[in-house]
Amino acid sequence: MSFESKSQDPASQEMLQLAADKGMETIWDRYEAMQPQCGFGSTGLCCTNCLQGPCRIDPFGEGPSEGICGVRDYSVVARNLVRTIVGGTASHSDHARHVAELLREVAAGHIEGYEVKDEEKLMKVANKLGLETEGKDVNELTKEVAEEAVGNFIGYHGEEMSFLKPMVPEIRYELFKECDIIATGINDVINQAIHRTAMGMDADPVNLIFGGLKAALADFVGCTIGTDLSDIFFGTPQVVESEANLGVLDENAVNLVVHGHEPVLSEKVIETARALEDEAKEAGAENGINVVGICCTGNELLMRQGAPLVANYASQELAIMTGAADAMVVDIQCIMPSLKNVTDCFHTELITTMPHVKIPGARHIQFSDTTADQDAEEIVRTAIDAYGRRNPDTVNIPDHKSKLMAGFSVEALMDAFSKINEEEPISVITDAIAAGDIRGIAVFAGCNNVKTPQDRNHVEVAKELAKNDVLCVATGCVANAFGKNGLLLPEAVEKYAGEGLKKFFSEAADALGMELPLILHMGSCVDNSRAVELGTAIANYLGVDIGDLPLVASAPEAMHEKAVSIGSWAVSLGLPTHVGVDVPITGSSLVTEVGTKIAKDVLDGYFIIEKDPKVAAEKLIAEIDERNWLLEMKAKAKEA
Ligand code: NFS
């Protein structure tokens, strides 16, 4: 049987064969069983927001054209979209709030076991927020930064969120103001958006969409806080080397898989695993403990600790089917409940850790900030115990893994580029753009979506863009896909880059004494804030708006509500944003027009919904070229 229609990844294909042979069910089987999927839901035309429903509006005009309350198609679609964006905002922000509150408690001396590892980043964030730093010690500053971050949730200043303004060029911030899309606080906007989409509330689709953008910008703030504060706690990423794919599992080690998004948990787990290596060896695991990651927790640990990536979203079940995962420790987000069914067939311990994420039948080890060290010890020892129950006959680790480079925080990049231009490291990029070596920059974000073969769209869009001299940066599960495909390596430059991009990389390598990979891995999904920091630095250096830059975004396999949220703030920031799967807005031509066309007139950014990866790349390149031309014209007009 060929599994190419399910996954482009050879390791996944191998495991899918095994699953088929053994009659084990995967996400792909459940997707097939779900066909045909509901047309009303797929187009955004199903309203379940009151108990008179569900109401379905007939897009062909043969059935009802209004819901029971009289709501029209455009309001239903817009309301559903806003709720999707808010789901993303709540997810990223709840994650960020945990880190912010922990930072505050640590600074207050209420919690031990965590400390500020990166004082330089603390100072950078304090300066960014305009806090007075003179004469203050680390603890005082930590307190202030943490208070400021927590304040962005509750809007306690009664002002705009302080983490937003310094992240974008002034002119963009003014545009946000004009459009009235700056919330007073993250919690405020979640509250308001759920309210405005309730029965009998906002029915104006344009007003609703702007309400959604307000929530999306709050999501961006949540992402920024998540990144900044995690860096302060655990260190700003520096360039690291590691590996990706199922082949990183080690037959002779306790394989402890961390899955989810919280570095607060996974950093403790890896620290404890390193401390308990000897216990694992005593239990017979020659190579000790092998901590590997799935989804964004994997990216967080890769960036800061060099831990290998074992799987991205779609292959999380397959990691267990190798029979070599002794424990899978999950925290928040992107965790399939089906993991329990798979672990039932193996010795693998599925451990949930968060009070608001439990799975029936899974072992729950509550992870609390106040008892983090003990909790992590219990988790690691549970994995070591499980290793003793591993059945060697059921171990099938696919022989597929690829080396990779990661850790490209803006700080790491600027450190490197300062060897070329100490005063203005950002000019290394802007000069290459001006010379035409770099035609534009693409930010890749997002997931796997079972509606498209795993990783295929990611890889095809990226290869096409690289061939056309577009510099690519990536976060989240798409970065993992690139890792598996060898695109996070310098060798990929020779293979896939166009002539201009090759020139840029080879000149950089000569000057830096270090080769850079074709695609720069910037971290987890909250770390899309790093890409914005880079974009804003470029825009400010050139004295233009971020929406003027030849900068685009692409989420070829978007799946989660978080991806919709990120896409929406990318559009608000002025980026043409490609989505490679259908988005449930097509039930309203008005909402579709606003999102895919009219948004460009107002915000410069807009959605490009395109399933064909080649065509998607062409559209992104056309947009990049248009922007380059406009920039050139503006520069000429300035000279004249
Ligand atoms: Ni992003 Fe990360 Fe992956 Fe998608 Fe899920 S892990 S926060 S949502 S599936 S990229």
Descriptive account of the structure:
The chain is α/β, with parallel strands linked by helices and 640 residues long. It folds into four domains: 10-56, no CATH class; 73-234, Substrate Binding Domain Of Dnak, Chain:A, Domain 2 (Up-down Bundle); 246-394, 3-Layer(aba) Sandwich (Rossmann fold), CATH 3.40.50.2030; 409-639, Rossmann fold. The strands form four sheets. Strands 6-5-4-7-8-9 form a six-stranded parallel β-sheet. It has a six-stranded parallel β-sheet with strand order 13-12-11-14-15-16, sandwiched between helices. The protein has a two-stranded antiparallel sheet with strand order 1-2. Strand 14, helix 23 (561-572) and strand 15 form a beta-alpha-beta unit. The radius of gyration is 24 Å and the shape is globular. The mean pLDDT is 97. FE(4)-NI(1)-S(5) cluster is lined by residues 261, 295-296, 313, 334, 446-447, 476-477, 524-525, 559-560, 562-563. FE(4)-NI(1)-S(5) cluster binds next to helix 12, helix 19 and helix 23.
Q: Which overall shape is indicated by the principal axes computed on the Cα atoms?
A: globular
How many strands?
16
Strand order of the largest sheet: 6-5-4-7-8-9
Bound molecules: FE(4)-NI(1)-S(5) cluster
Nutshell version of this structure?
With 640 residues, the protein is α/β, with parallel strands linked by helices. A six-stranded parallel sheet has the order 6-5-4-7-8-9. A six-stranded parallel sheet has the order 13-12-11-14-15-16, sandwiched between helices.
Core attributes:
Rossmann fold, 6-stranded parallel sheet, CODH, Carbon monoxide dehydrogenase, alpha/beta, 25 helices, globular, 4 domains, 640 residues, single chain, anaerobic carbon-monoxide dehydrogenase activity, 50% helix, Substrate Binding Domain Of Dnak, Chain:A, Domain 2, 16 strands, iron-sulfur, binds FE(4)-NI(1)-S(5) cluster
